[in-house]
């Protein structure tokens, strides 16, 4: 699927649409994505800052989606675990930038080539427009060659 089409579809996905999360850009080669979480009355918490669940949700699927696009149907690519470290209150719109390096894809392919499971952590910082870090999200991905390809 073309990246522009995928971006439009993801922006219409109800969990993102109603949470104020938008995929701003997705490179044609699926190596970079930029996401924004707009601060709205319906995604503020009791103290009027970004709701922690929305901060996690804005970062949740992207590492898996980018890697899955590159490894394709020969591999399982699943989220295994995730953590979030709240660094500062989010009192404005926040942004996340995902950049997948080709060397990481090469490492994943090589590590999974013999059919073993591969567990790898990926980090993304969630920042304000001025660059202040609001949270750091870590996602652990499970990658494994599918049985028919082992």
From TrEMBL:
InterPro entries from the UniProt entry: DUF4442, HotDog_dom_sf
Superkingdom: Bacteria
The protein, known as: DUF4442 domain-containing protein
Organism: Dyella acidisoli
């Amino acid at each position: 699927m073309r990246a522009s089409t995928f971006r439009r579809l993801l922006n219409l996905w109800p969990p993102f649409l109603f949470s104020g999360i938008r995929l701003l850009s997705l490179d044609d080669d699926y190596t970079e994505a930029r996401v924004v979480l707009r601060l709205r009355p319906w995604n503020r918490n009791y103290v009027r800052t970004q709701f922690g669940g929305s901060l996690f949700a804005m970062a949740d699927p992207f590492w898996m989606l980018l890697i899955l696009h590159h490894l394709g149907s020969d591999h399982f690519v699943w989220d295994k675990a995730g953590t979030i470290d709240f660094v500062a209150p989010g009192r404005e719109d926040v942004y996340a930038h995902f950049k997948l390096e080709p060397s990481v894809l090469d490492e994943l392919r090589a590590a999974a080539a013999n059919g073993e499971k591969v567990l790898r952590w990926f980090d993304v910082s969630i920042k304000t427009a001025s660059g202040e870090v609001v949270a750091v999200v870590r996602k652990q991905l499970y990658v494994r060659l599918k049985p028919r390809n082992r």
